[in-house]
Amino acid sequence: MNQPAFETATIDQMNLHVLPTDKFKTTTIVVQIEQQLKEETVTPTALLPFILKRGSAKYPTTKELRQFLDSLFGAVFYTDVIKKGEKQIIQLQLEIANEKYLSDTSPLLLKGIEFLGEIMTNPLIQDNGFSKNYVRSEADVLQNKISGLIDDKIRYANQRVTEEMCKEEPYRLLSYGKAEELAAVDPIQLYGYYQQLLAENPIDIYVVGDVVPQEVKDGIAKFFRVKRNQIRDLPFAPTQKKVVEENLIVEKLKVGQGKLNIGCRTHTTLVDDDYEALLVYNGILGGFPHSKLFVNVREKASLAYYAVSRLESHKGILMMMSGIEIDKFEQAVEIMKKQLQMMKEGTISDQEMAQTKATLVNQLLETKDNARTIIDFSYNNQLTGNKKTVEGMIEKIKSTTIADVVKIAQKIEVDTIYFLRDEEGK
Questions:
Q1: Tens digit of each residue's pLDDT (9 = 90 or more) over 2-53
Q2: Can you tell me the mean pLDDT for 218-245?
Q3: Alpha-carbon gap, residue 372 to 26, rounded angstroms
Q4: Where are the alpha helices (DSSP H) in 346-416?
Q5: Whether residue 274 sits in one domain with residue 182
Q6: CA pair distance 225, 126, nearest whole angstrom
């Protein structure tokens, strides 16, 4: 069954996407504010969603804000900042009950839209800037998140290999900004920067639920009052580079288990015609429990506690990740590279193809069962200027051949091998 399409409208140069569906008993509203991932703005952009979440002119304290959400039958509100390729995205999300399914039928949708509009367009301002207390406390929280990365060795190794691979590229930057800059963020300058973002940057508002599109449009027009200027064009153009030579980085910390990450350039992103073949490639290589890395590195050779691969589809990077005994480094690298070679040679069984395709198709079908994943899929198209559909992707996956996967394999280059090991060994 085909996915119903979003109805799209433009209100004050903001893109509104409404999907009326009776599939869910709640209504999900997501605001996405897009910014380029850049050295000079990564830290202020990272702080903004968390300051907005603390309070507004109407709900100046977190307690008042919570009380209001409770009055909306326990509406769920959260904010975040994420990285999609070389874009940094501020997200505000509200999930509210649909009054059709409640005994109290007072209209919640407009209250929810009014609340999100208040949070976004009417933040708490003191002395011409954001609240000093909120800026300080949220900067501390982000600083702790960044410094706490080292306690999660899997995430730490992944960030370090990304930094080494993308030294000259914006993608090396963490979506949470730079720890050394957070303490110096000025509340007045930050508010000025936020006003500029609201005036000039692409804003997409998504609403999914059992709603009437015209009511949503009217609500957005009434409560999302933003002064918009000329909107900046932020094209989808991830930095790509050919690998000149393989890079080896060994880092020593107090660890009991080694972390071996191999970063590869795929030269394919989700806008390319062969993207679905790349999904199949990754699934066979290390995306699933039946994949080559899992079976050969973990199961057969007993070299790794985990061995997986994952894609960053907006950037065109494939990351192989494993946890190994410190002294098994050379052996693990050799076996992991052998899997890449087998993919190039087309040493792929019919069973590997069939299992991978079936799992990918299931994953795509599951995106339709959740309002948030429906929105993510649509927003990926919006960011990239793509027109992909779940059905179209499923068809392409089903028709992918071993020859298509081999073609992808020829494009893949190992860029950086990163090994996190103990301090004692040689």
A1: 656 899 999 999 999 999 999 999 999 999 999 999 999 999 999 999 999 9
A2: 92
A3: 12
A4: 350-366, 371-384, 390-399, 402-411
A5: no
A6: 20
101-149 tens-digit pLDDT: 776 667 799 999 999 999 999 999 999 999 999 999 999 999 999 999 9
- CA 363, 27, 33: angle at the middle one, nearest 5? 80
Is 205 part of any domain?
A: yes
CATH for 13: 3.30.830.10
Task: Count CB-CB contacts under 10 A for residue 425.
Answer: 11
User: Positive or negative, the Cα torsion across 162, 301, 323, 350?
Assistant: positive
Percent of the chain with pLDDT over 70: 97
Positive or negative CA dihedral for 230, 197, 8, 316? positive
H helices, E strands: number in the chain = 15, 13
Burial profile 3-30: b = 16 or more Cβ within 10 angstroms, e = fewer: eeebeebebeebbbbbbeeeebebbbbb
pLDDT at 103: 65
Q: Per-residue pLDDT tens for 237-263?
A: 998 888 889 999 999 998 889 999 999
Query: How are strands ordered across the β-sheet holding 317-324?
Result: 247-252, 413-421, 258-265, 317-324, 304-312
- On whether both 124 and 33 belong to a single domain, the answer is yes
User: Are the CB atoms for 79 and 56 separated by under 8 Å?
Assistant: no
Stated pTM of the model: 0.95
In a domain, residue 240? The reply is no
Chain position carrying tokens 């304290």: 61
Q: Give the alpha-carbon dihedral of 402, 407, 411, 412, to 10 degrees.
A: 0
Can you give the residue range of the structural domain that contains 143? 7-223
